[in-house]
Design brief:
The complex is a heterotrimer of chains A (319), B (216) and C (542). With 319 residues, chain A is an alpha+beta fold. Among the domains of chain A are: 108 residues, Cupredoxins -  blue copper proteins (Immunoglobulin-like), CATH 2.60.40.420; 95 residues, Cytochrome Bc1 Complex, Chain D, domain 2. In chain A, 35% of the residues lie in helices and 20% in strands. Chain A is built from 7 helices and 12 strands. In chain A, the strands form 3 sheets. Chain A has a 5-stranded mixed beta sheet, covered by helices on one side. In chain A, strands 4-10-9-6-7 form a 5-stranded mixed beta sheet. Chain A has a two-stranded antiparallel ribbon with strand order 11-12. In chain A, strand 1 and strand 2 form a beta hairpin. The longest helix of chain A has 32 residues. The radius of gyration of chain A is 27 Å and the shape is elongated. The N and C termini of chain A lie far apart (63 Å). The mean pLDDT of chain A is 90. Chain B has a single domain, classed as Up-down Bundle (Four Helix Bundle (Hemerythrin (Met), subunit A)). In chain B, strands 1-2 form a two-stranded antiparallel ribbon. The model of chain B has no long low-confidence stretch (mean pLDDT 94). Chain C is mainly alpha-helical and 542 residues long. Chain C has a single domain, classed as Cytochrome c oxidase-like, subunit I domain (Cytochrome C Oxidase, Chain A, Up-down Bundle). Helix content of chain C is 66%, strand content 0%. Chain C has 15 helices and no strands. The chains are: A alpha+beta (319), B mainly alpha (216), C mainly alpha (542). Chains in contact: A-B, A-C, B-C. At the A-C interface, helix 1, helix 2, strand 7 and strand 9 of A face helix 3, helix 5, helix 8, helix 9 and helix 10 of C.
């Protein structure tokens, strides 16, 4: 769609629908502003004081009018609410099979890591037409990942993961802004989203320093930090096997069942005593302060990969 | 009677509404820190329970009795004012102050104990021995959060008590000057309500801080 | 004739201004009217301080790389602009100046319920202001007026504790004012003044006071915890030690959202009074307008999460806060329709107060409607953290609240000072302010939609044209604000003497002299009429 002069580019699959709602809201605003302004102007002229002794009759009110101008705005906001909420809901979950990219915000730069291991600073190369999910965390204060052309935005918080997703629909370079004040160079924490044709993206990915994939790096951390000692694949070690765990429900001591998502994985590494898997004891040490955010991201990528593997057949709980 | 009022009744009603409104603001004030406490206790129950077990439950319980007693003497002070018994009024006000002083004294001792045990967040945090055994299972960082709430909440409460003591002293001085009659003793009532409120806050603080995880 | 009985015209009649002289009679006064003037001088001072920061900011933003200061300094400017304008101008302005002056007069009492608490509240305000000024002079604060953690608690090395103490202290000024108003309105109404005979300004003050009393303490405890965290780094808001930075946001916005209704409800009350007087008509739908004020106060406590839609909070929480945020807009819309209907078949005159009131309705309507963009989840995702937000709240706070304050000052100036000001200059200033305001802030809606984030000390060059437009508008607005300062001060010495009721308005405050005597009324009035009894009433249509 051709952009209006005061409209940012529409470069994502949702930009059009967000703009539609925006224009509807603009139309409502314009309508009521013009309505009120005109009526007031009209009354101001028509009922201007003509003589100093004028004593207009008071009109106490009108219940029908009150009902009318309560009902109509309520109806209008109800329409906006439903429309907006549906749109928001639909945009909130990344489609299955999205390409996963890790983003770490830190004062005052964006560190990006592709699953294949490609690293970028303040730039994110993405292929056209493919849903991309960003898993984000901060190393220090709260930041915010904002791409106006995609109409997406999400706060980036220390100590936890947030995510956003988009499907780029235009090739080109688009602004990336930090949109949550984060200190002296908040205004400088900007970058670009570079959308490329799929084959050009593959070429970009392959080019540059051959690095190892995040999964491979994560496997190395998993080994070096001693995780593999207890978390053996057969589940016969001191800790549960991690095959087929990520993305599936986990039964805990105490009867609760939780989803093994990013937050659960992170918590299990940093605060292992918070949730104990059924059949195991709280003996895992915490790795708080021992792994950098980057290492944690790599381990997470590895755990996600393990999650896709078939779990070993269920065995009795080990003591 | 103050000049802006039509009669003593109006003044009394205004004073009463005023103090109740003020107590509502106090509820909102403490409410904020109680809400934060509730969230962290829900998140880190083990750490909170561990921290709670370090507190001296006997001292806490004794202090609760002392404060309840002080509310009794306060109510008796108000009653004395109501019937115009100046001597009893002063006596009960002083008794309330003494009991308040006992409470604060015990509190000071407890605070000192925390330094002895090195469980003061940021200033002297190095739990060892028994304390370490109790705190380690829940995580030392989260235990520090518990003690932060301990000091913040009991500290705020103590500040309110000290202000209350000041108000009681003011009442004693005014009572000695014969300021109060059975028709005018609003300041005694107002301070009484304030004192009861501070007492009620402690009634909440005691179980929330001292009795987590059950071990009576 | 006996010279003993004839008083020379040289001496003005006894009123609260000349009842006593000397600085002690002002600094130790218990007269609500004098306290109102103490506040008027202080809030004007802080308006100039906060406004100066804004001027510096707008000059700086004329160039993409920043024209005036280092980024660190710019960050301190926008922080202190926000802190000073919100806590030291907007929140006290109408309640502490006009409310203090008018509430006892409007209820027909000799003073507020607690005059000593009233004076105390001014001193508390001043002490809080001094702490804040200290924080500005001793290096400034760069966290934004929202003090988000962990930046403010762990990372910023600016005067966070000092400003937190300053705002904490000033909060008690708010609380005491609100407490005073609630008790006065409940217990000290003159005989015959039932709730539904009260002027709508009193309803607005009452609703505002409820928010002040219930909300401000939560800000107090939040700042207290923030200061402790900044000093002792215990981790209550810091994830490294198990704390939750979003907890701060919930606690902060629980007060700060209702705070915006503290800032707008009084202005709405002023507008009701002015519209009624300058149309010579009872406000259409009086009871509905009264109830709407209370509804806004109540609903205002339930919507704070709309400041946190992009924080990663649950989608369901977002849905609930979005729905409630839409609902809170409805009573405001109802008020706008009722004010407009009051003009119908009225007898309208255009003195300066009316120009401000009509300007308020227009700008508040625009600002309020742009709030819908932000209550709407899908569009808020795009607009949050951008200049759209800045434009939205300035339309309401400046286009709304400040114009309401100026309108009220102009309406009640004859009562407060006993003088009239030149209406031509007042009208010119009102128009200049209206135009300058729109030039300053309308471009910011577009900047926001285009994606320019807020709190940026420098920005991509493509945003320059709109920034320069906005800064140019700010110059006009600044000139507009200076004009009333000049003629109002001029009028105190040289303005024509005002009689008791120069506008022909209804309301008890106009039945006493201009300025009123210290005791307000020779005898406590008895009220027999409905509010706004300008003309024959057509029939109770409620």
């Amino acid at each position: 769609m051709q952009s209006l002069p005061f409209q940012p580019e529409q470069a994502s699959s949702i930009a059009g629908s967000v703009d539609q709602l925006y224009f509807f809201l603009t139309a409502i605003t314009l309508f009521f502003t013009v309505l009120i302004f005109s009526i007031i102007l009209y009354f101001m002229i028509k009922y201007r004081r003509r003589s100093p002794d004028e004593r207009p009759r008071a009109i106490d009110g009108s219940l029908p009018l009150e009902v009318l101008w309560t009902a109509i705005p309520t109806l209008i906001v109800a329409v906006i609410f439903v429309w907006s909420s549906l749109l928001y809901f639909r945009n909130s979950e990344a489609p299955k099979g999205s390409m996963e990219i890790f983003v770490t915000g830190k004062q005052w730069m964006w560190k990006v890591e592709h699953p294949e291991g490609q690293r970028e600073i303040n730039e994110v190369h993405v292929p056209l037409g493919r849903p991309v999910k960003l898993t984000m965390t901060s190393e220090d204060v709260i930041h915010d990942f904002f791409v106006p052309a995609f109409r997406v935005k999400k706060d980036v918080l220390p100590g936890r993961y947030t995510s956003l997703w988009f499907t780029a629909t235009k090739v080109g370079t688009f602004h990336l802004f930090c949109a949550q004040y984060c200190g002296a160079f908040h205004a400088g924490m900007i970058g670009s989203i570079i959308v490329q044709e799929p084959d050009e993206y593959e070429r970009w990915l392959a080019g540059g320093a051959p690095g190892e994939s995040m999964e491979a790096a994560g496997a190395k951390v998993f080994q070096a930090s001693g995780c593999s000692t207890c978390h053996t694949p057969d589940g016969a070690g001191l800790g549960p096997s991690l095959l087929g765990v990520y993305g599936n429900p986990v039964k805990l001591v105490g009867g609760e069942t939780v989803m093994a998502d990013d937050a659960y994985m992170r918590e299990s590494i940093l605060l292992p005593k918070a949730k104990i898997v059924l059949g195991y004891t709280p003996i895992m040490p915490s790795f708080q302060g021992q792994l950098t955010e980057e290492q944690l991201n790599n381990v997470l990528a590895y755990l996600r990969a393990l999650g896709k593997s078939q779990p070993k057949p269920k065995e009795e709980g080990k003591q | 009677m103050a000049h802006q009022f039509e009669d003593l009744d109006q003044q009394h009603e205004a004073d009463t509404l005023g103090i109740w409104l003020f107590l509502v603001t106090e509820i909102m004030f403490f409410g904020g820190v109680f809400a934060a406490y509730a969230i962290y206790r829900w998140l880190y129950f083990a750490a909170f329970a561990g921290g709670s077990h370090i507190l001296d439950i006997k001292l806490g319980a004794a202090n609760t009795i002392v404060l309840l007693g002080s509310s009794l003497t306060m109510v008796l002070a108000v009653r004395s004012a109501q019937v115009g018994n100046r001597r009893a009024l002063i006596l009960f006000l002083v008794a309330t102050m003494i009991l308040g002083g006992v409470f604060l004294g015990v509190k000071a001792y407890e605070y000192n104990q925390k330094f002895v045990e090195h469980v003061v967040p940021s200033l002297d945090w190095a739990p060892e021995g028994e304390a370490l055994k109790l705190l380690a299972p829940g995580g030392l960082d989260h235990a520090q959060l518990y003690f932060f709430f301990y000091f913040a909440m009991t500290g705020l409460h103590a500040i309110h008590m000290i202000i209350g003591m000041g108000l009681l002293l003011w009442l004693v001085l005014r009572a000695r000057k014969d300021d109060f009659t059975p028709h005018y003793f609003a300041p005694v009532e107002v301070v009484g309500l304030y004192w009861h409120f501070v007492d009620i806050v402690w009634i909440f603080l005691f179980p929330l801080l001292y009795l987590i995880g059950g071990r009576y | 004739m006996s010279t003993a009985t004839l008083e020379p015209r040289v001496h003005a009649p006894r009123n609260y201004l000349n009842a006593d002289y000397g600085w002690k009679s002002w600094l130790f006064t218990l007269d609500h009217k004098r306290i109102a003037l103490l506040y008027m001088v202080s809030v004007s001072f802080f308006f100039i301080v906060g406004g100066s920061f804004a001027v510096l900011m707008r000059i700086h933003l004329t160039e993409p790389q920043g024209a005036l200061v280092q980024p660190e300094t710019y960050n301190k400017l926008f922080t202190l602009h926000g802190v000073v304008m919100i806590f030291f101008f907007l929140i006290p302005s109408i309640p502490a100046v006009l409310g203090n002056f008018l509430v006892p007069l409007m209820v027909g009492a000799r003073d507020l319920a607690f005059p000593k608490l009233n004076l105390l509240s001014w001193y508390i305000y001043i002490v809080g202001g001094l702490f804040t000024l200290y924080s500005a002079i001793a290096g400034g604060v760069d966290t934004g007026w929202t003090f988000y953690t962990p930046y403010s608690s762990t990372y910023s090395n600016t005067q966070v504790t000092a400003v937190a103490i300053g705002v904490f202290i000033t909060g008690f000024s708010s609380i005491l004012t609100g407490l005073n108003f609630i008790v006065t309105i409940h217990k000290m109404r003159a005989p015959g003044l039932t709730w539904f005979r009260m002027p709508l300004f009193l309803w607005a003050m009452y609703a505002t006071s409820i928010i002040m009393v219930l909300g401000t303490p939560v800000l107090a405890i939040t700042l207290f915890l923030l200061a402790l965290e900044h000093l002792f780094h215990v981790g209550i808001f810091s994830p490294a030690l198990g704390g939750d930075p979003l907890l701060f946001q919930h606690l902060f916005w629980f007060y700060s959202h209702p705070a915006v209704y503290i800032m707008i409800l009084p202005a709405m009350g002023v507008v009701s009074e002015i519209i009624a007087c300058f149309s010579r008509k009872r406000i259409f739908g009086y009871k509905i307008v009264a109830f709407s004020s209370v509804a806004i106060a109540v609903l205002g406590f339930l919507v704070w999460g709309h400041h946190m839609f992009v924080t990663g909070q649950s989608v369901y929480a977002g849905l609930i806060f979005s729905m409630l945020s839409f609902l809170v807009a409805i009573p405001s819309a109802i008020k706008v329709f009722n004010w407009t209907s009051t003009l119908y078949k009225g007898s309208i005159s255009y003195e300066a107060p009316m120009l401000y009131a009509l300007g308020f309705i227009g700008l508040f309507t625009m600002g309020g409607l742009t709030g819908l963009f932000l209550a709407s989840l899908a569009t808020d995702v795009h607009l949050n953290g951008t200049y759209f937000i800045v434009a939205h709240f300035h339309y309401i706070m400046v286009g709304g609240a400040v114009m309401g304050y100026l309108g009220g000052i102009h309406f009640w100036w004859p009562k407060i000072s006993g003088r009239l000001y030149p209406n031509l200059w007042a009208g010119i200033a009102a128009v200049i302010i209206f135009i300058g305001f729109n030039l300053t802030f309308f471009p910011q809606f577009i900047l926001g939609y285009l994606g320019m984030p807020r709190r940026y000390a420098f920005y991509p060059a493509e945003f320059q044209v709109l920034n320069v437009m906005s800064s140019a508008g700010a110059t006009v607005l600044g000139v507009g604000y200076l004009i009333p300062l000049v003629y109002l001060i001029w009028s105190m010495r040289y303005g024509p003497i005002a009689d008791a009721n120069p506008w022909g308005a209804t309301g008890l405050e106009w039945t006493t002299s201009s300025p009123p005597p210290t005791e307000n009324f020779a005898e406590i009035p008895v009220v027999t009429e409905e509010a706004y009894a300008y003309g024959p009433v057509e029939g109770i249509g409620d």
